[in-house]
Please model this.
Amino acid sequence: MNEAQRMHDSKGSSSFGSTGATLKIWNPATGQVAKEIPADTPASLRQKMEAARKAQPAWAARKPAERTKILKKFGELLVKRADAVAKDQSLETGKPISQARGEARSTLGRVSFFCENWEKTLKAVKLPPAGNTEEEIRYEPLGVVANISAWNYPWFVGANVFVPALLTGNAVLYKPSEFSALTGLNIGALLWEAGVPKDVFQVVIGAGDIGAELLKQPVDGVFFTGSYATGKRIAEAVAGRMIKLQLELGGKDPTYVADDVADVKAAAEGLADGAFYNNGQSCCSVERIYVHKKVYEPFVKHFIEVVKGFKMGAPSDESTYLGPLTRQPQIQVIEDQLRDAASMGAKVETGGKRVQGAGWYFEPTVLTNVTNSMKVMRDESFGPVIGIQAVGSDDEAVSLMNDTEYGLTAGVYTKNRKRAEGIMAKLNAGSTYWNCCDRVSPQLPWTGRKQSGMGSTLSTIGILAFVQPKGYHLRAPAKASAPKKARKAKAAKKPARKKKR
Ligand code: NAD
Model:
C-alpha cells in the first residue's frame, strides 16, 4: 500500500464499524502506524449526546466559583504533565518535542485568562429603569456544544473553546482531529481528573465522517477550527437549524517590510520564525512577505541565512526546529504550488523538495520572483514554504496584502508607529501586527474575515460566544390598595386628578 492509500484508509474506513471501530494513529516521522485506538460510531455518539444533555443542567447549576476552581486545576495539571502529554502530541503530529511542551505549558495563559474574566464578563447588566419597569440583561449557557478541532495546535485551539464553554455552564462534545486524537484523550483525562464530570466533557474519536455524524446530533452550538473547505461543509450542514456556529479557518497571512524598518536583520529573523515555526503549520503562519525594494536585497539575504540554519530532525530530539509535516498529502499540495510557481518564473532560493527517506519531511523553501497570481501566494500552503516579493510603496503593499480570499492576520515592520497604524487600519484582517507576527493573545479577539471564518474566540468576546443573552423586564406589582373606607376619606380631602398612563 502506498502512502496516499494509507492516508485514505486512516481518514475513512478505519474509523467506522458497528463493532470494534478503530482509528489509526500515524507517526509522521516514520510514516508508519504507531497505534490503533477505539473510535466512535454513530450509536456511541447518540449515547454521548444523550448523556451530555442530561448532565448539563446540573453542571450549569453549580456555583460559578466551583467551575472556576475545576478549570484552574485543569491548567495546573496540564503544566505538571506537560512532558508526558507533549510526547504523545509529538508522536502523532511530528511537532518537535520542545514546541509541543511549549504549547502545553503556554495553554495555562489562556486558561487563566478565562478563569479570571468569565464571571466579570457575564455579570448581569442592570440598565436604567424604564418607568416602573426594571431592565436587566442576564446570560445563560447555550446547552450542549460540539467542538470539532484541528491538529496543529490542539491544546491552544481546543482551550479557546472548551475552557470558556465549560466555565459558562455548557457541556461539550469535543472531537479532536484524527491527527491529534491522543492529545484529545489527554485533554479529556486532565479535565476529568480536575473534576469536570465525565458526561459534561466527552471526547469523540474519529475522522471527518464521525465529525459529520456529530453534526447530526441535536447540539445547541458548533465551534469549529479547521480548513475553509471543511468549515464551508459544516456551515452548509447546520444551515437552517438556527444554532450558534463559529468557524476559525485558514489564512494566507501577509507581512510588509517597509523601507524604514528599524532593523532588517531582526525583521528577517522574526519573520523566518513566523513562517517556519511548527513547520509553517499554523493558521497565522506568515505565508507571504512583501518587502520594500530599498531593503529587499539585505532582507532576502538575511532571511535565507536564517532559514538555512534551521535544524531539521526527529521530533523527539530536543534540538529539532523542523520536524516532518503532520499529513503526508500536504506534501503533494506544496509540490503542486512549487510547480505552478516555477512555471510562472519563481526562483527557489533554498529548499524546494521533499526529503528522501522515512517520514514526511520537506525542505524549508524560500521563493523569490513570486507574484500574486501564483498558487503559492494565493492558496494556504500550511507547510515550510514562503514567497517573498519586492514592492515599491505602502499602497502597493496594502493592495497586494488585501488581494486574498482570506483575512486572518496581516502585519507591517516599520519604525514609524503612525505609518504602521495607518497601514493596519487598511488591512482587511481580524488581527494586525506592528513589528511582530504569528502571535495570539488571550486578551484580544481571535477572529477571521472572509474565508478565514466567522465569530471570535479569546478575549471577553470569546466568552460571550458561549452564552445566550436574555432580557429581563421586571415590574413589581403596584402597592396593595388601601381599604375602601380609607380611600373614600382620602378622596374627600383631595381634589380629583386625571388618570395618568
Ligand atoms: P480539517 O478541516 O481537515 O479538519 C478539522 C476537523 O474537522 C477535524 O477534526 C476533522 O476530522 C473534521 N472534519 C473533517 N470533515 C468533516 C465534516 N465533513 N464534518 C465535520 N467534521 C469534519 O483541518 P485540519 O487539517 O485539522 O487543520 C488545518 C486547518 O485548520 C488549516 O486550514 C488551518 O489554517 C486551520 N486552523 C485555523 C485556526 C484558526 O484559529 N483560525 C487554528 C488552527 C488551524
